[in-house]
Amino acid sequence: MEPRYITTRALHNLPQKLLAMLISVALWLVATADRRVNVEQGYDVPVTVRDTTGGRGTRATSALNPATVRVTLSGRPERLRQLNAKNIEATVDVTGVPEGSFTRPVQISAPTETTLTRQDPDKVQGFVDTQLTRTLPVTLGVATPAESSLPRYTVSPAEASVSGPGRVVGTVSQVVTSPSVIPAGAERELP
């Protein structure tokens, strides 16, 4: 193979070869455009609270408003189809926030190969309180039984523990359960 032969073959029909190359590149770009383009998709993500405040006792958060954040991500269509709201983290950090109401920014952790486009709202409100546990007796709520029956009820356990933020637990006055109709000689557990 001589260099002159290679040069002659390479330059033979050069305009047609270049046109064919441009057409093939244009067709490839059109055919794969949807794979290269970034699209946007929205997700309703539940907000989680992070509190690493040390000290005595534990703290609880209540009345989080709103409880979810609308997050819009940008990325390739195939990547966004793989995601759901569980793959996205929306956290509000209340570390060091004194007990009482708060308004704090929400931090979004977008999954790999995606970009956070927008979030609504940027901040959430809530209430930080001391975590309390109270033990209350379980009350049996019974409607009037039929006159022809003489039912006998047993409540076990007789007490239940209620845990949560102090301002919520403080409003709980009793724990009630209701019996259901049970055939004679039968036993059944109820919530």
Structure overview:
There is one protein chain. With 191 residues, this protein is α+β, with helices and mostly antiparallel strands. It has helices at 3-11, 14-31, 33-36, 77-82, 166-169; strands spanning 39-50, 59-65, 68-75, 89-93, 100-105, 107-109, 114-120, 123-140, 159-165, 175-177. Strands 6-4-1-3-7 form a five-stranded mixed β-sheet. The longest helix has 18 residues, at 14-31. It is elongated and about 110 Å long. The protein starts with a helix and ends in a 14-residue tail after the last strand. 9% of the residues are buried. The mean pLDDT is 84.
Give the tags.
alpha+beta, 191 residues, five-stranded mixed β-sheet
